[in-house]
Amino acid sequence: MDRFNAMRVFTRIVELGGFAKAADSLQVPRASVTVLVKQLEAHLGVQLLHRTTRQVSTTLDGAAYYQRCVQLLADLEETEAVFSAARQNPRGTLRVDMPAGIGRLIVIPVLPEFTERYPLIDLEIGLNDRPVDLIRDGVDCVLRGGQALDDSLVARPLVLVEQVTCASPAYLERMGMPTSLADLEGHLMVEYFSSVTGKRFGLEFQQAGQLQAIDLPKRLSVSSADGYLAACEAGYGLVQIPYYHVVEQLRSGQLCEVLRDHPPPGLPLSAMYPPHRQMSARVRVFVDWLVEICTRPGTGFRR
Question: What domains sit in the chain, N to C, each tagged with a CATH number?
Answer without folding.
Answer: 3-82 (1.10.10.10), 85-142+276-294 (3.40.190.10), 163-257 (3.40.190.10)
